[in-house]
Structure formats: C-alpha cells, structure tokens
C-alpha cells in the first residue's frame, strides 16, 4: 500500500465520522453491553470529541483510502493531576480511534496512532494515554504493539 493519506478532520467528513462512531459503539456493545446504539449517540460522541478539543486543545484526523474516510482519531491534551510529578502532568489522550470494518487489516489504526503520537510529541507532553474496554483483546493487542503498556485499572460496580 502506498503512503496512507491522513489529514485533519473537516466539516465534510462529519457524516463519515459519525458513521465510524456508530460502528465503534456497536462493536463496544459486544464487549461491554452498555453502549447507546442509536445515531444520536454517535453524533454526541463526535460532539464530545469536538468539545474536549475546544476546551483542552487537541487534534482530530481522518485517514483516507481511495478518497473514502477509512479511520478517525481524536487526541486531546490533558492535565495528569496534582498527584503526578510536575514534569509528568502535561499529557495527551486518545479519546477515539476507529477504523471502518471494510478497511481493517490495512494498518490504518497504526498510521493514525503514529500521527497522534507525533502531535503529542510536538506538544511536549510527557505521555500519551488511551483507554481500552476490558475484554477488547484486539484493541489491547493493537495498543501494546504500538508501545502502550497497562498503567491503571478502572473498575465499575453496576448499581442497576
């Protein structure tokens, strides 16, 4: 495959990226059982990415294959909190990474993660983080293959 075109998310990408969020929600439903599966939820996910970027700074990128949006990544800047050493507080976080099912296996996710990392390094942050649902083995393999390591465990107790 020739070099994968990656560019900033633009307004004309909105429908394709909402569709990717919707696809991600449906996939994560099979893992967690708690995802909202309507289009409005997918639209809200994109709106949340946009809100976080507006409030904190960040970047949203799309990868293209044959002119179609094949994947999307959103990376925002974050404050790691006062419990961290001062030199480690400024961080970046991948809020969303999704590749359309038709485009999987073509290293789209790796290319998008590479761009997110370049952005984070350019911002001078100390770390790049990402969350993975427990049981999403494919995502864990992807991120570990990219150099991410487990750092914390988030636990949930369902009350209803």
| SSE class | alpha+beta
Neighbour order of strands in the largest sheet: 1-2-3-4-5
Biggest beta-sheet profile: 5 strands, mixed
Flag low-confidence runs: none
**Could you name the CATH topology?**
Aminopeptidase
CATH-level-4 superfamily name: Gcn5-related N-acetyltransferase (GNAT)
CATH hierarchy, class: Alpha Beta
Tell me the number of helical segments per DSSP (H or I, 4 or more residues long): 4
Q: What Rg do the Cα atoms give?
A: 16 Å
SSE pattern: EHHEEEHEH
CATH architecture: 3-Layer(aba) Sandwich
- The tally of structural domains comes to 1
How far is it from the N-terminal to the C-terminal residue, by CA? 48 Å
What is the helix content? 25-40%
Strand content: 15-25%
- Tell the overall outline: globular
Mean pLDDT over the full residue set: 95
Number of β-strand runs:
5
What features would you describe in this structure?
With 160 residues, the chain is an alpha+beta fold. The chain has one domain: Gcn5-related N-acetyltransferase (GNAT) (Aminopeptidase, 3-Layer(aba) Sandwich), CATH 3.40.630.30. 38% of the residues lie in helices and 22% in strands. The chain has four helices and five strands, in the order E-H-H-E-E-E-H-E-H. The chain has helices at 14-32, 39-56, 108-122, 137-145; strands spanning 6-8, 58-65, 68-79, 90-99, 128-130. Strands 1-2-3-4-5 form a five-stranded mixed β-sheet, sandwiched between helices. Helix 1 packs across helix 2 (39-56).
